[in-house]
Structures are given as structure tokens and as C-alpha cells.
Amino acid sequence: MRLVDYLDKGASLGTDAPCLSMGDVQLSYGDVQRLSHRVARALQRSGVAPGSKVAVLSGNDPVAFACVLGLSRAVAVWCPINPRNEAAENRFVLDAFDCSCLIFHSNYAALVEQMRADLPKVKTLVCLDKAMPYAPSLDQWLDGADDAPIDVPVVDDVAMIAGTGGTTGQPKGVMLSGRNLETMSALTLMGYPFEGRPAYLALAPLTHAAGVLCLPVMALGGHVVIMPKLDLGEFLGLIERCRITHTFLPPTLIYMLLQHPQLATTKRDSLQCF
């Protein structure tokens, strides 16, 4: 399966509820599907062929994640770039992974500015939220791209290249196939409790496990509630307001959450799996 197939599976259930949301941004399954088709067509127009590597450099953001699904629809390979890394490390990753396109948020424009002169393989740069002197905004780049369904033949099964931590040298590229992600999603669907339509709260980085966990939730037509930054008070508030059923945090944040003064007064009866 491609990453975008999980979106299409959820959309086939006919839900009108949100697919991806963050604050005032609410994207339905139809919205994300249409955006993914436009991104796929814009990638084709920019010369990004099936099997090409496309990097996404952004914090947690619903439009950025919708672009990931769009590049999957174009049968490109998702290369998540860790915004916490130094410029030299991310420059190495972009070059070593043969990325031909970089989609980034303006929050990391200074990082891109440090890298772009030394990225000869990157031919297309797109800024998600506003135009840069060297990169169109997403809206400008998508201008004229049709949102009609597009079907691109799959060339191989590589869906994602994830960078290792690089603690003992330069990061390595771990090639994850569609079958790898399908197996992980199947194990999640079999092993986690899922009663009714899930609502998944993503505070941990979508470039890592929190992003991959969106896939089985989408396959069930679930709602992915995205948080852009660490705020455990808001995290608890969203659990109550959005009736969150599933969430994921690294142990350090769980220990901090257990000490949070708001925990005792937060309604948590919607939670099925933490």
C-alpha cells in the first residue's frame, strides 16, 4: 500500500468529519484528497518522476502532512527532515538521499538558506505558507494544478526513507517499504483497542512514529488532531474537548504529564489507548 491509500480507505467510509485539524485549520477527507491530487500534479509538472525523493521540512502541520500524502500519490518517496537537526546534518541527508524536491515551512527558512547553495540535486523548493525569493509559496506552486483524481503506476515499494540519529557518524537512510508500513499498521489495528471512530492526538513529531501512527487511524476514517508545539496543558484540554481516543508520547513527556496539575481535573474517559 502507498501512504495515500490509508487516506483513500478512510474517505471511502463516507465520513464528513475532519481528517486533519490543528486549531482553526480543519481539513476533511475530501479536502485532503483534493489537495493530495493537486500536489501530485504539481510534482509531475516540476519534473518529479515516480520513485524520486521528496523531502518535507516542517514542524507538526496538517498542510505539510497532506503534502506527504500528495507526494505518495505521485509515487514519490517521502524523506522526513528533522527540523531539530543542524544545517550541516540536514544538508548531508538531503544530498545523500538524492532529494530532488524540498517542501518546507517558513519557520525553517533560515535553515534552508544555510543549506540551499550546497544542494545541487534539489531542483524544486516550495514554501508551505509564503513565498520566498528562491521558492514559491504552496498556493503559487499549486496554481493551475487540477484536483481531479490522478493515478500514477507504482514503480517500486519504497515509501519512505527515514534518517537514523547519526549519533555515531553521519545519519543512514532506512528504506521503509509500503509493505513495512502496511505490516506496522496491521499490527496496530490488531493490537490496539479501537471502538468507534478514533480521534488521535499527535503532539510528538509527525516526522517520526507519531506520523506513521496516523495511517491506521486514517484507514478507520479517524480524526487526527495535530499539536504544533509542546504544551501539556493544551494536550490535556484537547483530550477532553476533542474526545481523544488514542495518543502517543515518549516516556519523558509521560512523566511530565503525570506531574501536571491539570491532570486530576481533566476528563479522560474517552481514552482507549495511551
Describe the structure.
It is a single chain. This protein has two domains: 179 residues, Rossmann fold; 67 residues, 3-Layer(aba) Sandwich (Rossmann fold), CATH 3.40.50.980. Helix 1 packs across helix 3 and helix 2 crosses helix 3. The longest helix has 17 residues. It contains eleven helices and eleven strands. The protein is an alpha/beta fold. The strands form three sheets. It has a five-stranded mixed beta sheet with strand order 2-1-10-9-11. It is globular and about 55 Å long. Helix 5 links the parallel strand 5 and strand 6.
The shape is: globular
Rg result: 18 Å
What count of helical segments does DSSP give? 11
Instruction: Please name the fourth-level CATH homologous superfamily of the largest domain.
Output: ANL, N-terminal domain
Q: How many discrete domains? A: 2
Strand percentage lies at 15-25%
Mean pLDDT: 95
Query: Helical percent range?
Result: 25-40%
Order of helices and strands: HEEHEHEHEHEHEEHEHHEHEH
First CA to last CA: what distance? 26 Å
What's the total count of β strands? 11
Largest sheet: 5 strands, mixed
List low-confidence stretches.
Answer: none
Biggest sheet, strands in spatial order? Answer: 2-1-10-9-11
The name of the CATH architecture of the largest domain is 3-Layer(aba) Sandwich
- Return the CATH class of the largest domain: Alpha Beta
Annotated CATH topology of the largest domain = Rossmann fold
Secondary structure class reads: alpha/beta
